Amino acid sequence: MEIEEKQESNELDYLTLKEIQSQMGLIKKYVSTEERRFLQRVLRKFNANRKKMNRTILFLLTKIYIKPEHALFTQLGIDIGKLLNVSEDEKIQIDKMIQNEIVIQMIKEEKSDTVEQEIYVLLLLLVSLIDFALVQNALLIAQLLYQIVVEQNRRTLDDLAAKVFFYFARVHQLLDKDIEIREKLFSNLRTATIRHDEACQAVLINTLLHNYLRYNLYQQADKLVSKTQFPENSENAQFARYYYYLGRIKAIELDYSESLQYLTQAIRKAPQTGAKGFRLKATKFLCVVQLLMGEIPEKDLFFQKELQHELSPYLEITSASRVGNLSSYLKVIEKYNLIFQNDGTYSLIMRLKHNVIKTGLKKICVSYSRISFADIASKLHLDSENDAEFICAKAIKDGVIDAVIDHENGFLKSNQKINIYTTFIPQKVFDQRIKFCLEIHNNAIKSLQFPDELIRQSEKTTEDQLERAKELAEKANESEEKGFDEGPDEPDHDDI
Amino acid sequence: MDFNELYRLLSSFTNSVENDFPDFQYCNELLTQLKIQLAEQNILFSSKLEKQNIEGLKIARQTLEFAVILSVKMKENKSFERHISQLKPYYYDYENFLEPSELKLKILGIYLLFLLSQNRIAEFHTELELIKIEERKSKFISFPMRLEEFILDGNYFKIREAFSEKPSELFDFFLEELILSLRSQIAECVQVSYPHLKVKDAFEILMLKDKNDLIEIAQQNDWLISEDDTIHFKLENDNENVQIPSDRLIREIITYAKEMERII
């Protein structure tokens, strides 16, 4: 029985090897033709490959594709077996597989003759090391990769380099060493900008923003955003991240309507499945920002599959502020204090108190034509009548309630409700909605994609057309997940 | 590196600043000397972090801390802000290298109050984010945090109560500034929410003592003080003010037309 299982897993490993072999072929083709779509096809598979990696495959891959005179072995003197922490059992299996015909043939025939191929294999090694929780070892590989990428000046490297930078920053973050690399990231951002290397620019701006926000350096992050221009042709995944960071910055700066816009866009651009950590974080911020604006998030938001459980504290805080009940609001904060602190939403939620009071006051004003300040204070759980009087005065000024104060007799008298349709409010709301629809339409048009003129011409033969169609279908299926399986925010979420 | 000279200067500087009635000119002279010395030794703005630097960095930090306190005592906004921004790297970027300073929270608290008094609320919040949650419990930090909350709520009554709980004399200067900016905020609130108000109540609400101040505010805001000591506010009558905002409407409709054209 056991043997059978092993056989099966061996079979799978061979399949994976074969698959990667064909991808390596594509990378080679990309380097010689400089047609980006070949590489993109490979990169789309990156996350799928990552899930299939095990120690055996990685060992064989490095054996096949990394030359023995590579810096990995000569300068760093790394023993792959040790690096991967291979156990005795796995060693036996590896030995067995090396003697297999397919592998022998691959070792003989396959070799990497371009840096791109090497980098791809090393990237797989790097992410797998992170997955195996061998982060210290991953750091070695990350530094090596970083060195290779920085020293080479090849445009064909751009997309791979972006990935390298991402994981380079990621490994440092896992080891809490990310403050040290800021300078490096900046110098690379400068280089990338000069070279119009958009893939790297996008990734580097995002990693820097993430780096800043991890240490609550909102001011610096804000400056970075204002001094850089996010490349327009970036992937959706990068845009989603960028918007998410912008949303967070704006929320702290009390610019809630901007923040809301960015966060909605971030969620819209994020993949609908997978990337749970990212969607979760963005949704949490979205919910709080919406509450701060005095809007109540829709109930669907809290009942999304997968996210439902983690969002429940936010549901409670929403219902507390919807009713305008100060004491239950304070209770929820006390109960989930730690969760909110971990999410980084704590200080935003503390600001909600004001909104809760406002909602409460609004309700009172609707239901009473005149009410004494003592009653208001007791209803809103305020300390004294004087508190209530001032709060009402401010609320009147802010336009929250429509009333007048009678100081001598100590009561609040609400004005007659005017028919809302005699004001401009409906028109304004209507305008908002029209603008929203128009924006969606414009965004949709912007993201339409057309095949290049060149490709269209070369597609005359049916074979090419078939291949192209297949590719498009593949793209449609997988572009969703591309580059997003591991958000930098994922582990934060697991920590809770 | 010889720090003896620096230490001597620093201690006479701190002593003279801490004096109840400091001689400002003398203090400033000492501060300039200190800064020159630090700059010559390449400590003041060094970006390099080395072990032997740490002692120098500590001196630089203390110098700046007292420079901040000096600015508060001299009631100078500009030099206060400048010194704070020079000091911040010592608190945040060198956090792991220097042991925490005793004055850190006090100074940051004053800075937060300063931002409040200037009505720079967005900066107040970005600054607050940098302060750890445990540190926010300190009386120096929680004081401006509570004030901010009261201001947001409009709970001006509580603010007056809170003034008596100020954690240090150094907060005085910016509290005064805060009252000034609050008074105009309160005045705005009062004139829309009260039809009329007795003068003696107005004193209390606006945190005023002097009748002339009240008259000045009344003049600024076009309030009428009648003979029976009552202030009458001009109540805006909504119906008369309703005008069709044709400019805005035209602009909006043209935008729609333009967008529609693009779609078709």
Automatic annotation (TrEMBL), chain A:
The TPR repeats extend over: 240-273
What's in the GO CC field? proteasome regulatory particle, lid subcomplex
Tell me the SMART domains matching this sequence: PAM (SM00753), PINT (SM00088)
Bias (Basic and acidic residues) occurs at 459-485
Tell me which Gene Ontology terms the entry assigns under biological process. regulation of protein catabolic process; ubiquitin-dependent protein catabolic process
Region: Disordered, residue numbers: 459-496
Q: What sequence ranges are listed for the domain PCI?
A: 240-419
Query: Which intervals carry biased composition (Acidic residues)?
Result: 486-496
Molecular functions (GO terms)? enzyme regulator activity
Q: Supply the Pfam families for this chain.
A: PCI, Rpn3_C, TPR_PSMD3_N
Top-level taxon: Eukaryota
Which sequence ranges form a coiled-coil region, renumbered to this chain?
A: none
Record's keyword terms, sorted: Proteasome, TPR repeat
Q: Which family does it belong to?
A: Belongs to the proteasome subunit S3 family.
Query: PANTHER family from the xrefs?
Result: 26S PROTEASOME NON-ATPASE REGULATORY SUBUNIT 3, 26S PROTEASOME NON-ATPASE REGULATORY SUBUNIT 3/COP9 SIGNALOSOME COMPLEX SUBUNIT 3
UniProt protein name: 26s proteasome non-atpase regulatory subunit 3
Tell me which species this is from: Anaeramoeba ignava
From TrEMBL, chain B:
Query: Locate the PCI domain: which residues?
Result: 78-249
Which Gene Ontology cellular component terms are annotated?
cytosol; nucleus; proteasome regulatory particle, lid subcomplex
Keyword tags: Proteasome
Matching PROSITE patterns: PCI
**Record's Pfam families?**
CSN8_PSD8_EIF3K
- Which GO terms are recorded in the biological process aspect for this UniProt protein? proteasome-mediated ubiquitin-dependent protein catabolic process
Q: Which PANTHER family match?
A: 26S PROTEASOME NON-ATPASE REGULATORY SUBUNIT 8
The similarity annotation says: Belongs to the proteasome subunit S14 family.
Instruction: Give the protein's recorded name.
Output: 26s proteasome non-atpase regulatory subunit 8
Write down the species.
Anaeramoeba ignava
Q: Kindly list the organism's lineage.
A: Eukaryota, Metamonada, Anaeramoebidae, Anaeramoeba
